[in-house]
């Protein structure tokens, strides 16, 4: 604004000056809010928000653990059993290196008895190559004239075909180690002398997708019956478009599926949660609360948001809430060693402390008074992020503190995040799924492999059993 424009406003009278000042004040407030929003975006990283570590770029935040420093030094503790390459009791091959003559005087020692042996072992791979088994079915003609032919074993259907082991290895490399099609075929050729085409590899993966249908359906049922299950979702690209990869898991079972949508429609079609009667642990995404089951909130998310509120907006109550939650977790972890609950006195103490921190937060974040002549607006009243976090911790305190009341409930939703982590690695490597069928196949095979590994069954073993008609299915309680 120039001086002449300012003087013209002044000469126009008091009302004009007031109107212009109010307009300028509103614009300044809007610009301040925008600057604050941009500063908040710049200040967020993987330590104080839900952003993944990959988004930190080269300016990764300095490590800063919320754990209290222990008294023990880092590294292995006294009495810890180490793990190293050990001598084999029965080596497959033994090479004896004889002493033929004295290295000092040259006298022959060939006939002298051995006084002792020093052993060293080399652990190595045998030569890798395909083993071909030929099946021969006899034919015989009976005296009655009927031609009889012996039956081939089940699964031996073609004149020449690949066996269970090489199929399992192909799926292992493609769907577990995330090698692209061409590199998978190249590795199979280099390691095993198996010149497999990409089309054949695609057919093998499709076969494993079909074979895993029943085992994965049983995995879904196991999760539905669990007392506690973890739920999460993440973006995934299919044919260049954003889809959503959903996960449901326990410590012993994992289920993945992919859908065009993220919300209620996708969750209903995928299943598990609509029929789930246990406690669903998740990250406070609203559609999860639409299902009639118990809920538990991820406190790892809360801690990150509290760190941001404390460091970026100087919210002292947020720092006190961090200490409160971690102290409760420490008390629960200690109590788990001897019992399955906190005593009533501890519960009352922690509940009072939790409420005290909330009261402190409300005092620091009061709602701004409405102007007297303000018009009624539809929708929710605008609040700061700190106030929204505060109200969430207040209104959903039972879900946030579920781990304190029920020791079967974990402190966080890290189980689901760990299960999704490798799915994000796949996206980094390949960029996207080319087709919906490929994405669905990948999810089903990973569900099967992840569940097997959680039950101490190796991925190769599980895949070999899948192709042999004896798939692994955990027959245990997944609570």
From TrEMBL:
Domain Transposase IS66 central: 160-440
Composition-biased stretches (Low complexity): 44-55
Annotated ranges, domain DUF6444: 21-84
Residue segments, region Disordered: 39-93, 364-384
Record field: compositional bias (Basic residues): 61-74, 373-384
NCBIfam families recorded: transpos_IS66
Name of this protein: Transposase
